[in-house]
């Protein structure tokens, strides 16, 4: 074992014993691993020690900063207007970014959105957006900044040069089952946002059975950590904790979710997806002035008007065109291949979104097509009659997909208590 690995082992033992690292030690860990001077085995020892003992907010901020500055960083110092970036921890049917980004831009905010791909049982914003023929999400930093200035928004992939330490650490964490650590999750999320340079951040932490944070308590703990770390690193930050106990959209699957997002942008859908998108867009409009987190009715009214009068959709179309996409050529899904009907009458008591999400991701992978998916025609709490359609199944392997999700919508006598879309709002100014 190398001397460097021995040093990492010592740091891991000290961390496991509850000792706080210094900033120099954290810098050495991140730089050593990202440059290949620390091997996977040694670094995994340290990750597992963090899993066991945790990290202080100060340590987490140092870790985030070191990861953010492991590669290129973007500066918006000369940008005109309020530059905001937005992130969601993800969940089933989370198409919020496709709506909230152009919606906020239509109302005067400059949204510089660095986004990601699907992970586990959830779809990714980039995967959904790339259902539009010709659209690219791979832009140079110069092109990214120019589009934000001219169009008002962009949704792009984070380049390999942004926070490369996070990418390498993230891959190792998944291989070694060292994902479920609040400090490590917070550092991973924020390192890319700090590298992206936006001075204002809106973070959407999902809570519930369809999310990665399955309880409100865990989601709130992550939200508090993100809030404190972001403020320590000089960002004005708003964190929303939002409900993801069942699929947020009525559609699950890349093309279907894009289609539903377009319906919201065109003012045709007022469901929970729309409510969540309005909450996130409202936070982006209010963030410069929101010393205390609260709903600002004047912002919500402006946002709803932008949906009704078509300006939000026009801004989305302009963003698509700027990124080379042909929105007219997107074939919006219409009729499902098969329909799953209710075996009895009653009320929808639950929707197992995780099962649906996993089945759709598997179907899309098997088909090598974004068309595969599920559309829910009945949601939790709604009445259903025997023989009425519960779900529509799309894709070349609709029969197999339908069998996997057939029991995902449960019917009973009592409706569950509805949870609000937004469970908590937190805000902090730079420290």
Q: Which structural class is indicated by helix and strand composition?
A: alpha/beta
Morphology? globular
Distance between the termini: 41 Å
Q: How many helices does DSSP assign?
A: 16
CATH topology of the largest domain: Pyrimidine Nucleoside Phosphorylase, Chain A, domain 2
Beta-strand fraction estimate: 15-25%
Major β-sheet strand ordering: 3-2-1-4-5-13
Uncertain stretches:
1-5
Please tell me the total number of domains.
Answer: 3
Mean pLDDT: 92
The first-level CATH class name of the largest domain: Alpha Beta
User: Percent of residues in helical segments?
Assistant: 40-55%
Give the second-level CATH assignment, the architecture of the largest domain. Answer: 3-Layer(aba) Sandwich
The arrangement of helices and strands along the chain is HHHHEHEHHEHHEHEEHHHHEEHEEEHEE
CATH superfamily of the largest domain: Nucleoside phosphorylase/phosphoribosyltransferase catalytic domain
- According to DSSP, the number of beta strands is 13
* Biggest sheet architecture: 6 strands, mixed
């Amino acid at each position: 074992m190398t001397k460097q690995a021995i040093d990492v082992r010592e740091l891991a033992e000290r961390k496991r014993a509850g000792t706080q690292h210094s900033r120099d030690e954290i810098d050495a860990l991140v730089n050593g691993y990202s440059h290949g001077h620390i091997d996977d085995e040694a670094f995994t020892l340290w990750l597992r020690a963090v899993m066991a003992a945790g990290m202080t907010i100060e340590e987490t901020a140092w870790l985030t900063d070191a990861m953010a500055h492991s590669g290129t960083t973007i500066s918006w110092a000369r940008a005109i207007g309020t530059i905001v970036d937005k992130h969601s921890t993800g969940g089933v049917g989370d198409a919020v970014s496709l709506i909230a980004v152009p919606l906020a831009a239509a109302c005067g905010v400059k949204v510089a959105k660095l986004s990601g791909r699907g992970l586990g049982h959830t779809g990714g914003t980039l995967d959904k957006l790339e259902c539009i023929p010709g659209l690219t999400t791979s832009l140079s930093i110069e092109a990214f900044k120019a589009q934000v200035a001219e169009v008002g928004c962009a949704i792009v992939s984070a380049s390999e040069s942004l926070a490369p330490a996070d990418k390498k650490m993230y891959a190792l964490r998944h291989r070694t089952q060292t994902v479920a650590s609040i400090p490590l999750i917070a550092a991973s999320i924020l390192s890319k946002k700090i590298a992206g340079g936006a001075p204002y951040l809106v973070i959407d932490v999902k809570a519930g059975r369809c999310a990665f944070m399955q309880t409100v308590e865990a989601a709130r703990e992550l939200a508090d950590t993100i809030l404190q770390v972001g403020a320590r690193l000089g960002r004005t930050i708003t964190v929303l904790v939002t409900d993801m106990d069942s699929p947020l959209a009525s559609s699950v699957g890349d093309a279907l979710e894009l289609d539903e997002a377009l319906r919201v942008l065109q003012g045709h859908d007022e469901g929970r997806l729309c409510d969540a998108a309005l909450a996130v867009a409202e936070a982006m409009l209010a963030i410069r002035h929101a010393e205390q987190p609260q709903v600002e009715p004047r912002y919500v009214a402006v946002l709803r008007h932008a949906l009704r009068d078509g300006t939000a959709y026009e801004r989305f179309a302009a963003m698509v065109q700027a990124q080379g996409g042909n929105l007219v050529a997107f074939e919006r899904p219409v009729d499902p291949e098969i329909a799953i009907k209710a075996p009895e009458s009653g009320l929808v008591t639950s929707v197992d979104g995780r099962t649906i999400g996993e089945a759709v991701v598997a179907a899309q992978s098997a088909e090598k097509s974004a068309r595969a998916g599920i559309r829910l025609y009945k949601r939790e709490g709604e009445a259903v009659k025997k023989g009425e359609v519960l779900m529509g199944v799309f894709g070349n392997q609709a029969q197999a997909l339908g069998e996997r999700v057939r029991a995902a919508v449960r019917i009973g006598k009592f409706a569950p208590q509805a949870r609000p879309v937004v469970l908590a709002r937190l805000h902090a100014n730079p420290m």
